[in-house]
Amino acid sequence: MRASDDLSKIFTALGDPTRRALLARLSGGEVSVTDLAEPFDMTMGAVTKHLAILEEAGLIERSRRAQFRPCRLRPDALGVAEAWLGWFRRHHEASFDRLATYLTTLKEDPDDPR
User: Fold this and answer.
1) Which secondary structure element, helix H or strand E, spans residue 72, and what is its range?
2) CA separation for the pair 76, 54 (Å, rounded)
3) Distance, CA of 72 to CA of 65 (rounded, Å)
4) Per-domain boundaries in the chain
5) What is the pLDDT confidence band of residue 1, given thresholds at 50, 70 and 90?
6) Cα torsion angle, 47, 53, 56, 59, sign
């Protein structure tokens, strides 16, 4: 899978408030699917579909131990999104730095044609 595919899957998964809430619940550690579903006003099937999207994006892992179906967060998977966002942050910070330099130049010498 290409990094851009990973990024699309991650942002698609994060684009839904229910999935973000599921991830927040998993941030405290491993939780069973039943316990994850408990506060949501939806069927177990709907919760399972949300979890499948999170798993496909690589944001969670699911396993099976007899009747217990634990889910756990994979925070390392957010590294793809973090790297992409970091590039934009650095790019825009550099642009703002250049703008600040230019504005300082204009302030010091308003006749400068730059």
Assistant:
1) strand 70-73
2) 13
3) 14
4) 3-108
5) very low
6) negative
pTM value surpassing 0.85: no
More confident residue, 109 or 13: 13
Structure tokens of 27?
């941030």
More confident residue, 84 or 53: 53
In SS3 terms, 27-69 reads as CCCCEEHHHHHCCCCCCHHHHHHHHHHHHHCCCEEECCECCEC
Which pair of tokens denotes residue 63? 């396993």
User: Burial code of 17-54, b = ≥16 C-beta within 10 A, e = fewer?
Assistant: eebeebbebbeeeebebeebbeeeeeeeeebeebbebb
Both tokens of 66, joined, read 């007899």
Architecture of domain 3-108: Orthogonal Bundle (1.10)
